[in-house]
Amino acid sequence: MNSTSKSSMGRLTVNLDAVVANWRVLAQLGRGADCAAVVKANAYGLGVAPIAKALNDSGCTAFFVATAAEGVELRGAIGGGASIYVLNGYQAIESDLFGRHALMPVINSCDQLHQWFLKGQPDAYAVMADTGMSRLGMSAEELLGQLKSLRADGRLAPHLLLSHLACADEPAHELNYVQLQRFQTVVAEAKALQPALKCSFASTAGIYLGSSWHFDLLRPGIALYGGSPDPTQPLALNRVVELQLPILQVRTLKETASVGYGAAQTLPAGAVLATVCGGYADGLLRSLSGRTFGYLGGVRVPMVGRVSMDYCVFDISNAIEKLGFNAVNEMGAVEILGEHQSVDELAISSGTLAYEVLTSLGNRYARVYQHSGVAL
Description:
Blueprint (H helix, E strand, L loop, with lengths): L1 E2 L7 E5 H14 L4 E2 L1 E2 L1 H5 L3 H10 L4 E4 L2 H11 L4 E4 L8 H6 L3 E4 L2 H9 L7 E3 L11 H14 L6 E3 L11 H20 L4 E3 L3 H4 L9 E2 L22 E12 L4 E3 L5 E3 L4 E6 L15 E4 L2 E6 L6 E5 L1 H7 L1 H7 L1 E5 L5 H8 L3 H7 L5 E6 L2 E2 L1
Parallel strand pairs: 2-20, 3-11, 4-5, 5-6, 6-7, 7-8, 8-9, 9-10
Antiparallel strand pairs: 1-12, 2-12, 12-15, 12-19, 13-14, 15-18, 16-17, 17-18, 20-21
Helix pairs in contact: 1-3, 3-4, 7-8, 10-11, 12-13
């Protein structure tokens, strides 16, 4: 028994309405705080232009990216009006990008702040306080010292103060409360110097810690795309992503045989195998080998053998038995993400997080964006 598919491209479908609906859910949790959107890394691998435009059209007016280059791309997608913050901060070599595209750096060090002012009277900018992440940001002493100097010199002060939680995906972790206390102290002293200063502390996991962590501006990322910071604790959000991998070939084993590289798994005679187009070059991590499932017509089919660069194999014997070969042949694709398997569930099978699953999705898929029920 053999068959081949009509298309050799995987299909990745992104529901823009679901992204917007998730943003609204998160905004409501903020109870008065404004809600931005983190769209760095190409909107977590799903396509920054269509996603940011849908969010901006729905009322989101603040976005966070990692690099100035990402900010330039984002500005081209959404035009003027919205605020775009660059989390990497300011690098002098990128000076022209910030002014030309109205990007705002999140200043992470005294040196960056000095360089920012060397470019002339600066536009709006933000500052990052390190309250326990030990990654980016100024210490409380450094930051407050800089604010005092800016005030004394009559220079433009930042309009936004940020910090970042290290353990927000573990709600009971002591550091969440330590960082909160530290940030509250910095905020109080900073606002004594600059009463109009806005503050932002909570990304997705921080939002769910509660209102004490919310401050003025929320910065959700993974939740916009339907994922959870902890895949074992899924959030009540809308499904954003569907991934269908086309079946390239179906074969019935005539005798006991091994499957894939390393002969890591052996199946008996009579097993029906489907080779699909999609491998670790497409974001199906090698750690999925023998640990996950796909779905054919709602029937769960196990992955067998190792994931290779371009292909993986599923034992579809159960689907053939329940649905019949003709029905399976008409379907032509195995569902990896969608109605039957969430990004968090795939993350668990991969031994990782939804962040890595989404940002690893490759560029070889046919990408379809759905908005108001219409494929764009």
